[in-house]
């Protein structure tokens, strides 16, 4: 028998749109319900019932109107769904009682009518469905179980199943009545000799979503995971479970995705109990959550584990309490204590187990992040806490919003794992020559594992780029985001991203090309590390081909904790390592004891020198135009100073320099105001050392410049 039931209620439903195998895929409302009772003991059949349902939108597709024979006038005169369901409950209960039976179970020809039509519509209309709609048997699955040799039956339709058992097809009745009559005949045949089948494969619909955690070592079948996009940012796991009402989500199977700033990005990964439910979920592509339509795509188990998987015992212990409402707090002062948080929430929002119901999120070194999660034992307490959204604690306003167990795990994973890009390079034990491989300079390669972003807003920062790349951020190599600046040190609108593999860069180029960032669409092209390096050195890369840089002077970039380089005897022809705009005055150059022939200058690793301690990119300044062949120079972008130290002059170099001073470094200054004087230049370089004869040379050069050259030409310091 069907879960110890005495009777089966053979049930059928139709919507105002697609029916059959596509039932519920277009979000159309139910307009027709048909049912008939089968007594499992006496093998008797009750009366056939047919009820028309009035939808909110009085519309019918042509195909539906033709199949059901219904018109808009028929729908307008009918009762709404809640009234029809009450009539159904009363009619079935009365009839079952008249038969002398005590219980019944629904029997359908596919789960669509229950899972894809009835439950989603009831959820949207806030209807409480009778308990009988939370369990059912599928006549097709029962037929397959009873007749395992019938696997060859094409598509396993009602007509083909009847034909297989030797019963005539029902064809003279209208839609709904025909399907119910066919199921009744098939059911009676399976109950009779020689089958004597028992309907025991009862499927259930979950009343609520069960939150929980997922271990990274737990195997996750990729055929059970989907990605939902376009979610409202305040959506909780329960909201997502409600969107997929009727389908069974695995425990803790909703993982909200976060962007680079730790905020929700409108996406979630959802894990179902089996592939059948995943396939039904995919049919809800572009269904609506409120006024927003939600995109639903396939995803992998690996993606789900990256978001929801964890190994933290602290999180497992925190989430071990059952039936708790989780609230996330963001923006806490770094000095906030558990008592401060409890006082902020107040007595009307008691936290479960007081301080044990608080989980502060910290960096691996123990520093607070400003985030915390709070457990409440009931919805009322959580609502009271949410009323304190954006109220002040200390000198900061605090954001509060609903959270999930998977989000707790994800936030802990984000902060407790090694950062994508280290915030500051380690301090050097001794100065290292710049000719050695710089720590952030990518090695040239023909492998197309990079992408170029072109057309970025000039105000775009690294956070904007990471948010623009979305889910692909996890595939970026360490130190792999390179902003390209122009000769003036300003953003050029270009950036290069190093991905972990050519496949990853191809996917980024395919999915992100011409996506918008701050009302501008951004072009995304796949390229190689070699092409990226050439462009960063001043070359060009476009669809017509690759143009080499105008000169071979590679200009390296900040931020490094030091910059050290030897100076060739005759002239400076190697790279210039620029310093950040907020760089303090450099130390005077010193001579290293073990290498007296080379003078080394470096900047001490002082954290206050960096504008952004979380800077996770390398900014390359393209090389300036080709310089005069007799002089090496550094281009100094506004806001930064290119410092270089020259070694002792070589005698032959003096003759070649045509009267230019032979000790010190040459600096070219472009864009000087035409009324600039020597005092203005000395003020600009205040804090840097220069020799008296260098000053004389500058004065002499300045006097000559008044009559011979423009102020943009060479000046010697």
TrEMBL record:
Gene3D superfamilies: 3.30.70.330, Ribonuclease H-like superfamily/Ribonuclease H. Its main location: nucleus. The keyword Nucleus applies. It comes from the Eukaryota. It comes from Gasterosteus aculeatus aculeatus (three-spined stickleback). The keyword Lipid biosynthesis does not apply. mRNA splicing factor that regulates the formation of epithelial cell-specific isoforms. Specifically regulates the expression of FGFR2-IIIb, an epithelial cell-specific isoform of fgfr2. Acts by directly binding specific sequences in mRNAs. Binds the GU-rich sequence motifs in the ISE/ISS-3, a cis-element regulatory region present in the mRNA of fgfr2. One of its GO terms (molecular function) is RNA binding. Keywords: mRNA processing, mRNA splicing, Nucleus, Repeat, RNA-binding. Residues 225-297, 326-401, 450-525 form the RRM domain. This is RRM domain-containing protein. Belongs to the ESRP family. GO terms for biological process: cranial skeletal system development; mRNA processing; RNA splicing. GO terms for cellular component: nucleus. InterPro entries: ESRP (IPR050666), Nucleotide-bd_a/b_plait_sf (IPR012677), RBD_domain_sf (IPR035979), RNaseH-like_sf (IPR012337), RNaseH_sf (IPR036397), RRM_dom (IPR000504). It is found in: Nucleus.
